[in-house]
Specification:
By secondary structure, the chain is α+β, with helices and mostly antiparallel strands. Among the domains are: 162 residues, no CATH class; 180 residues, Heat Shock Protein 90, CATH 3.30.565. It is built from 12 helices and 17 strands. The N terminus is likely disordered.
């Protein structure tokens, strides 16, 4: 099948959907239709040939009965042999006998009565017996001599004849040949009509959808490659409308992906210059660490670590632009120290750290056994927990901050179970909006708050999966949000020290 469509630049593109006739759907349909009609004709032929045999034998009995009635009144007279021979020739029999009121009389007979091979009583024959006898006749080859007897219509007489089976055999062969050619003709006519009808109703629309899918796969960004569905309510019309919706959705998704590729290229260009700026800031932070001031000495290590992380993140921007995070560099990491580092970084965050005592305090609780060691990439796990905790603190800081009765608590807990690390980030905030739950870990679609991009959750999901783990939003009783991270393949540990005492986040930062 050849079809053409207009390309995006007005060019006529030729799409070839060509299959071998025997392997095409229409060819298979035509062959199956012929076979099924032939099968139906065979099923019809079996009882019809049995019925034809019964009618042929009954005609022979009626003909013999008509010749016998002429001499019925001549009870004491025997027909001359020439007349008997003429009667036998006319009826196609070897002998004719008439039975009336229990008395049998031989009407005509040949000089040498043949030996009978089979006898058939036509007075009561069931359909199955008739079919069986018909096939016996066909397979015998017509070499037998048979005796047939039955009642004469309109009277109490019984007619009994002996005949050769060859004329019956030839008649049945002629009948079978005629039925075969007639069945073959009916099969082709029926198959042709069915093929034309189904080809117009089904095959042609299916080919149209196939051509549309092939054309769309060659240029999915071309709006002219989207199928134009027919306006009908059958299943194929519904399929065409679903195909159109799928093609439009895929085209929109591809446009969005292209936008992300362009955005990644722009970010990569910005990242090149940002690394130089951060390198200069890193040199200044190193010099600042040498200043002899208690406050500076207190915060300069955190500032240096922050600059180091910023430089490391810029190196990974290109990898993330390729939708690929670096492979985790696993080391033994103390989880309580890592979470404490996350807490300290959140204090220094100007977006959530607060600017004084007017801000409502948030209790940051680290419920992790001291000394719990995990085999993870420390920087990647830091990013995961930092992103989740930052989202939680932003949610806790929303709403009525002047109400001191509102509980604002963020708990990071960790434990081992069957050599799996289970880390939970639980807050008492307003909870996750239902709309955000639908695309929770999808960038630019799973934002938990207005104005958010959803990149934090998307990055956390990708980093956890790189460790072979899972991250999920867990249902909890009461308000708030709880994320659970599961990291398999952890070392076996049984002895832990007591957890770190809760520390208020705002108060800790004062």
């Amino acid at each position: 099948m050849d079809t053409t469509r207009n390309g995006g630049n007005g060019e006529r593109r030729r799409i070839v959907v060509n299959e071998k006739p025997a392997r095409s759907l229409s060819g298979k349909l035509l062959i199956l239709t012929i076979l099924f009609v032939m099968l139906a004709e065979v099923l019809i032929f079996v009882p019809s040939v049995a019925n034809m045999r019964m009618r042929w034998l009954e005609d022979r009995l009626r003909t013999a009965a008509a010749a016998s009635v002429v001499v019925e009144g001549w009870e004491h007279m025997e027909l001359p042999q020439p007349i008997q021979n003429d009667a036998l020739m006319a009826t196609g029999t070897k002998s004719i006998a008439l039975r009336t009121r229990g008395v049998s009389r031989l009407i005509a007979s040949s000089d040498m009565p043949p030996e009978v091979d089979e006898q058939y009583d036509l007075s009561s024959v069931s359909p199955f017996v008739a079919i069986r006898d018909a096939f016996v006749t066909l397979f015998s080859g017509g070499d037998r001599v048979i005796r047939v007897y039955g009642p004469v219509e309109g009277g109490p007489m019984m007619i009994d004849v002996v005949m050769e089976e060859e004329p019956l055999y030839r008649a049945m062969l002629v009948y079978g040949r005629n039925v075969f050619f007639l069945s073959l003709l009916i099969s082709f006519i029926t198959a042709g009509l069915v093929f034309v009808a189904i080809n117009a109703i089904m095959i042609r629309p299916i080919r149209r959808m196939t051509a549309s899918m092939q054309a769309f796969s060659e240029a999915p960004d071309d709006p002219d490659r989207i199928i134009e569905p027919r306006d009908n309510g059958d299943e194929l019309g519904i399929a065409e409308r679903h195909l159109e919706a799928m093609q439009r959705q895929l085209q929109a998704t591809l446009k969005g992906q292209q936008h992300l590729v362009d955005l990644g290229l722009a970010v990569s260009k910005i990242n090149h210059d940002m690394r130089n700026i951060l390198a200069s800031a890193q040199l200044m932070s190193d010099r600042l660490a040498m200043v002899d001031d208690p406050v500076v000495k207190r915060f300069s290590p955190k500032l240096i670590r922050t600059m180091d992380r910023a430089v490391a993140y810029t190196r990974e921007v290109l990898a993330y632009g390729r939708a690929q995070e670096a492979e985790p560099h696993r080391r033994l990491v103390q989880l309580d120290a890592l979470v404490a580092d996350v807490r300290d970084m959140l204090i220094l965050d100007p977006d959530i750290g607060g600017d004084g005592a007017d801000d409502a305090p948030i209790d940051f609780i680290i419920d992790v056994p001291q000394g719990l060691e995990l085999a993870v990439d420390s920087e990647q796990l830091f990013r995961v927990i930092h992103n989740l905790c930052r989202n939680a603190i932003q949610a806790l800081g929303s709403g009525d901050v002047d109400d001191p009765a509102i509980v604002r608590r963020l708990t990071v807990s960790g434990r081992l179970a069957d050599r799996q690390a289970i880390i939970e980030i639980d807050d008492t905030g307003p909870g996750m909006p239902e709309k955000a739950k639908e695309n929770l870990f999808t960038a630019f679609h799973g934002a938990a708050r207005a104005g958010g991009t959803g990149l934090g959750l998307a990055i956390a999901h990708e980093l956890v999966r790189a460790h072979g783990g899972t991250i999920a939003l867990v249902d909890k009783h009461g308000p708030g949000t709880r994320f659970r991270i599961t990291l398999p393949g952890q070392p076996d540990q049984t002895d832990f020290r007591p957890p770190v005492e809760p520390v208020p986040l705002k108060q800790f930062g004062e």
